[in-house]
Design brief:
50% of the residues lie in helices and 11% in strands. By secondary structure, the chain is of the alpha/beta class. The chain has a single domain, classed as Rossmann fold, CATH 3.40.50.
């Protein structure tokens, strides 16, 4: 069972999966740019686990991305500065059809975040089950809309 649920904050707390981080710093996807700006400015609090960072690092190392070691390290250092570590993870009550993505659900459950931001179809499908427990699984554009709704209320 996760530790006590933290109090609600004005700034949402999120887990961001690897494909969205790639959109931020490898592909420069314009649809993810407003969320990236919100993360970098601290308007969205983000969390990471060792397993999630390991996956991100491994993906950044894949030859198809042709990222230099210097750039890869720079991206990882930036993510390390922006995202708060969560050391103690618990198994989430929801399961993902893609076992490689389970780490994001476990992190989201353990930290009791507001959002898990992804473009991954298997995680988005899991969102139907997670919503009843207070976790919204959103694409980056939907997360930006949610952020705008929070600031206008």
């Amino acid at each position: 069972m996760p530790d006590a649920t933290p109090p609600r904050r004005n700034s949402p707390c999120a887990v961001i999966d690897t494909n969205v981080l790639l959109d931020f710093w490898v592909f420069g996807d314009a649809r993810a740019a407003p969320l990236r700006a919100a993360v970098e400015s601290g308007r969205v609090r983000v969390l990471r686990s060792g397993a999630a960072v390991d996956e991100f690092s491994e993906v950044l190392s894949r030859p198809r991305f042709d990222i230099s070691n210097e750039r890869r390290c720079s991206i990882l250092r930036l993510w390390d500065r922006l995202a708060e570590p969560v050391a103690r993870l618990h198994a989430a009550p929801w399961h993902c059809s893609d076992p490689a993505d389970q780490i994001f659900l476990d992190l989201a459950w353990s930290a009791r975040v507001d959002w898990l931001v992804t473009r991954d179809a298997s995680l988005l499908r899991a969102g139907r089950r997670t919503q009843r427990d207070g976790l919204l699984i959103l694409e980056p554009v939907a997360a930006v809309r949610q952020l705008a709704n929070r600031t206008s209320n």
